[in-house]
Amino acid sequence: xxxxxxxxxxxxxxxxxxxxxxxxxxxxxxxxxxxxxxxxxxxxxxxxxxxxxxxxxxxxxxxxxxxxxxxxxxxxxxxxxxxxxxxxxxxxxxxxxxxxxxxxxxxxxxxxxxxxxxxxxxxxxxxxxxxxxxxxxxxxxxxxxxxxxxxxxxxxxxxxxxxxxxxxxxxxxxxxxxxxxxxxxxxxxxxxxxxxxxxxxxxxxxxxxxxxxxxxxxxxxxxxxxxxxxxxxxxxxxxxxxxxxxxxxxxxxxxxxxxxxxxxxxxxxxxxxxxxxxxxxxxxxxxxxxxxxxxxxxxxxxxxxxxxxxxxxxxxxxxxxxxxxxxxxxxxxxxxxxxxxxxx
Length: 344
Ligand code: DAH
Prior knowledge:
Layout: H1 2-14, H2 20-31, H3 36-45, H4 49-76, H5 104-118, E1 122-123, E2 129-131, H6 132-135, E3 164-166, H7 171-180, E4 185-194, E5 206-216, H8 221-236, E6 242-249, E7 252-261, E8 278-287, H9 289-294, E9 303-310, H10 311-319, H11 326-329, H12 332-335
Parallel strand pairs: 1-4
Antiparallel strand pairs: 2-3, 4-5, 5-9, 6-7, 7-8, 8-9
Helix pairs in contact: 1-4, 2-4, 3-4, 5-10
The chain binds 3,4-dihydroxyphenylalanine.
């Protein structure tokens, strides 16, 4: 009996079937009414006590393995004939894989990065979770400046002398660049920024900016103006004009806001430029000597300019999007309008 059990166990382990018919034949041969394992059980019943003790367990194991194996084969083997392959009709056209497209904000960011790369700027990035020092203090924000207010800034650890917060602008990366890079510095810093604003067509609590910074000996406001003009013409077309209006930022002196001529009505006045012929695109100025000194740069020897712009705003002007919320809702109908499909 021992050899019989061992032989059948080996057979079960090696059992291979190509069709359901073969599985059924194997089941009948082993476990059917007249099957080999059934026959062994009959012989087993005739054994004395000692014999039963000796073979009982092995016989049961054999039966279980055979049942399991037959069960497995039933699941895994195909139809009735050998030629029965998978059920699917392989000549059917497949489900097309939908290609995604790049998000409009990414497209604009890439365009801006490419333009400034041509001008010799490096790209720098900094942390989105920043400290008060890099977002405000080192950028010459007075202690009681309203931008530090809880209304505008998402604080993470309030009450600390240098609290952690979500950066409200990418100007913080300027500071990090000045701290870590060798002079002269020429960088642009794209990134996500956060402000505690109610969400509307014109404002969002998350948006994107690109910051630019150029520091060297003898950099002047004329260099700033030229850089912005070249950028505007690359971005909005060679006919584009710029105009600078005096403004105020704590970290630049003098400061300006820059408008580009409306590329929709070409200065005649339309509802996009609200009849003025001009569209505001960025803030800029000469880096305040206090800001240079705070990062250990000699403001007697070096001067520089900085600028910052909102990517959603540029994308809105470029594609005449009238509601900021579209950028964040991931509605396929909106996203598909920017059909520069991702190259794969
Ligand atoms: N950080 C400013 C903001 O978020 C934008 C800005 C203005 C950046 C003037 C600059 C600058 O570098 O010179 O509104």
